[in-house]
Amino acid sequence: HGVTKNSVLSQKPTVSIIIPIFNRENLVDRVVNTVLNQTFLHWELLFIDDGSTDKTKSKITSLCGNDARIRCIDNVHAKGPSGARNTGLDNAQGKYIAYQDSDDEWIETHLETMVSFLEKYPDKIDVMTADPLRKYEETKEVFNYDKLDISNFKTTDLDGAYLFDKSEIFDRQLKGRVVTTQCIVGKSELLKSVRWNERLNAAVDIMYNLELCAKDISVCHVSEYHAIYWAHDDNLTNVSGGHSPKRMERIHSAFALYWELVLTTIKLNKAQKEFVEKNLSKCYAWHLAYHTFEPQKKYTVAIQYYQKALTLLPNDSHIKKAMKKAKFKHFLNKLRTGHGD
Questions:
Q1: Does 240 or 294 have the greater pLDDT score?
Q2: CA spacing 20 to 30 A to 132: which of 88, 315, 325, 333?
Q3: Which residues of 55-206 form beta strands (DSSP E)?
Q4: In angstroms, what CA-CA distances link 42 with 128, 178, 291?
Q5: How far apart are CA 27 and CA 56, in angstroms?
């Protein structure tokens, strides 16, 4: 490219990479290297430290040394990845924004590929995306080839990439996915116009991406694996660790809040509204009442959630049956212990 690090610094970065980080001294070198190894050089890397108590910050300093493209900024918003990413958006100076997680990786040509499309087709593309590969940290084996099936999408060929039909994007994101956080590279003003929801402690990416897709955006997809998502015991949603009902309560509650927010804050057509209500009802009845509260013998709460589910799907016989059983268990539990829950 004939570009040196110093000549890069004399102008504004093309891409701002936002990475929230908290107590990751043992993993930070991987994500630093995935950025340093990019074939594209015009970037700034913003680590948003969420109050680390280990050596994360000094490790970043020792790894990055005098590379002025890399900054470590303290999160000034609510604790958690959402607040940290919002702090990142506040500080990003690039023309485009990319997100990465502190424990994941990109292929070396990720930024170069995405920027080349965005620069070549500024009127046609707002956001570039690709596929993530999901692997187990311990064994390094792939457990999910998360390939977006575009066979039934309406697309226009753009230099071998797929430009999606604008009218389909929101609906498809609502019911599955079009964009993936770790693979997005998009126009800065657009990505800054959506804030990360600081009330959610799971399903945050899904909410952000859906709000992004609700903005009538144009998305172009490269049908290649650009990110590696590592699953390990320290992941927030814990794809590989233990699933105790108590631990899952936090996650299921967040998903219920996600569907509630979609229902109350985003403009939906009739079919979309029915889809969301069905998912919210399933979340109340099965994820929360049946799998979370009943195993903890919190029958009163479980029954309340079955009732909430039935207000959305009043004719669902499975939910009615489950609620009846929970009431019976509650009754037996009362007899046995002499009090309710």
A1: 294
A2: 88
A3: 70-74, 96-99, 105-106, 127-136, 142-145, 155-158, 161-164, 185-187
A4: 17, 27, 48
A5: 9
> For tokens 């992004």, what's the residue?
212
CA distance 53 to 162: 44
Residue 285 tokens read as: 């009845």
86-92, long-range: CB within 8 Å, 24+ apart, which pairs? 86/195, 86/196, 86/198, 87/48, 88/16, 88/18, 88/19, 88/20, 88/46, 88/48, 89/18, 89/191, 89/192, 89/195, 89/196, 91/16, 91/46, 92/16, 92/18, 92/44, 92/46, 92/188, 92/192
Residues 6+ apart with CB under 8 A from 302: 288, 289, 290, 293, 294, 326
The amino acid sitting at 219 is: V
Q: Are 3 and 69 in contact (CB under 8 A)?
A: no
Tokens of 156: 């226009």
Query: Please, what's the b/e burial string for 5-30 (b: 16 or more CB within 10 A of its CB; e: otherwise)?
Result: eeebeeeebbbbbbbbbbbbeebbee
**Rounded Cα–Cα distance for residues 45 and 325 (Å):** 54
Three-class secondary structure of residue 268 per DSSP: coil
Q: How many CB atoms lie within 10 A of CB 178?
A: 25
Q: What whole-number distance in Å separates Cα of residue 328 and Cα of residue 204?
A: 36
**Distance separating alpha carbons of residues 292 and 156, to the nearest angstrom:** 45
- Nearest one of 18, 47, 1 to 185, comparing CA atoms: 18
Per-residue pLDDT tens for 94-137?
999 999 988 889 999 999 999 999 999 999 999 999 999 988 87
pLDDT at site 328? 96
Q: What burial class does residue 143 get, using C-beta atoms within 10 Å of its C-beta: 0-12 exposed, 13-18 middle, 19+ buried? A: middle
Radius of gyration of the chain (CA): 22
The values of phi and psi at residue 40, to 5°, are -95, 135
Place of tokens 């498809």: 172
